[in-house]
Amino acid sequence: FDSAQMYRNEKEVGSSILKFLSSHGNTLGLKREDFHFTSKLASNSSYETARRSITQSVKQSGLGYIDLFLLHSPYGGKAARLVSWKAVEDAIADGEVKTGGVSNYGVKHLQELLDSEPRVLPAVNQIEVHPFNTRTEITSFCQEHNIVVEAYAPLVRALRMKHPVIVSLSDKYSCTPAQLLVRWSLQHGYVPLPKSATKSRIATNGSVSGFEIEPADMKQMDGLDEYLVTDWDPVDAD
Predict the structure, then answer these.
(1) Which neighbouring-strand residues pair with 169?
(2) Which residue among the candidates 7, 47, 65, 75 is catalytic per the annotation?
(3) Is 109 a catalytic residue?
């Protein structure tokens, strides 16, 4: 479950998980640890503000701890970024957070964090990545430093579903355009975060194990890059 302070949905997501766990619908006997809950710091400022904010997120969710906590963006400047990361490290040490990461970080922000010799290395960088915005420089840096790339907007927010290449390859592999895009992301080693409000589409988007995109077709999809940004783009922030 991908949440954030900025989305104002931590309480709703957390209460929904807890409600399911205690319901008759939980036929498999799932527990809290079977769910992965992510949240993000709304803004980088002072250490004290960030640390209090993380604690508040844990309380809002009601889940006892947060599996993955990210700095939502690099905005705020170097000093604010580094002290906010220290707050994440301390939240991990205090048991409030299991794993720390960042979001919308460019190479310079990642290098800055690594150069600071942190106690905890960022495990994740959640950024917009899809064939129409491949961000090769950032993804390559992440993979070289064992930072998992979580790809948000992997379906390009449905803006390119009718692109001739996407349509043609979807026909070739007998899949939907969304499945093709998810599969592209997986084959690059990313963790795609497809979004849908429709239960049937959520299931379909996750059903991509039945085919593999051939290397030549992956290369063709890589070539679609037009630096299409569907949301915000803080990767070059000072």
Answers:
(1) none
(2) 7
(3) no
State the Cα–Cα distance between residues 11 and 13, nearest whole angstrom. Answer: 6
Render pLDDT for 53-66 as a digit per residue (tens, 0 to 9).
999 999 999 999 99
Q: Kindly report the number of other CB atoms within 10 A of residue 138's CB atom.
A: 21
CA distance 116 to 122: 12
The one catalytic residue in 24, 36, 47, 72 is 72
Quote the tokens at residue 98: 């299991």
Condensed to tens digits (0 to 9), the pLDDT of residues 104-127 reads 999 999 999 999 999 999 999 999
Residue 136 to residue 105: CA distance in whole angstroms? 13
Let me know: does 65 contact 91? Beta carbons within 8 Å.
Answer: no
Residue 4, amino acid: A
| Cβ neighbour number for residue 213 with a 10 Å cutoff | 20
Residue reference for tokens 């890059």: 225
* pLDDT exceeds 90 at position 196: no
Dump strand ranges (E) for 63-162: 66-71, 97-103, 124-128, 148-152
Torsion (CA) 155, 36, 92, 19 in degrees, nearest 10: 130
83, 54 Cβ separation under 8 angstroms: no
Looking at residue 101, its amino acid is G
Active site residue 7: yes
Which residue in 70, 69, 73 sits closest to 43, CA to CA? 73
